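Query form — protein Biopolymer transporter ExbD

QUESTION: What is the three-dimensional structure of this chain?
INPUT:
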Amino acid sequence: MAVQIKRSSVAGTLSLTPLIDVVFLLLIFFLVTSEFEEEERRLDIVLPTATSAVPMVGRPREIVIDVDAEGQVYLRGQPTELDDLERLLKANVAQNPTNQTAVIRADRQTSFQPVVSVMDICNRTGISDYSVTTQEGPQNEP
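ANSWER: The structure tokens for Biopolymer transporter ExbD are given below.
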């Protein structure tokens, strides 16, 4: 006796529309919530090299401060005087008092004084977690 298998018509008409809707919603969610890090790195700065440099990972609420070859300080791509920088950093620390971080990107041709001035402002405003970025390069032996 032969057994007959009846195919259900429901399985053959599976609608993909809800699946496509979910995929598009996920895509929109990730696009809206992603942080565009390149916006704060618009300046053409040549970073100094260091053998122990590691790739920079974005941390939440991190402030990027740039110092170009002439010693001009930039915050969010805009030229900023040191007094204004201190005022803006104090405002950011007031909004995020526990874990405010700062990344100082200084051109290798700049003098050391503007970098030290930015570090001093970070210390005065309560940002103790700051770093100076470098790029990985060959080890210079004396």
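ADDITIONAL NOTE: The chain has one domain: 37-136.
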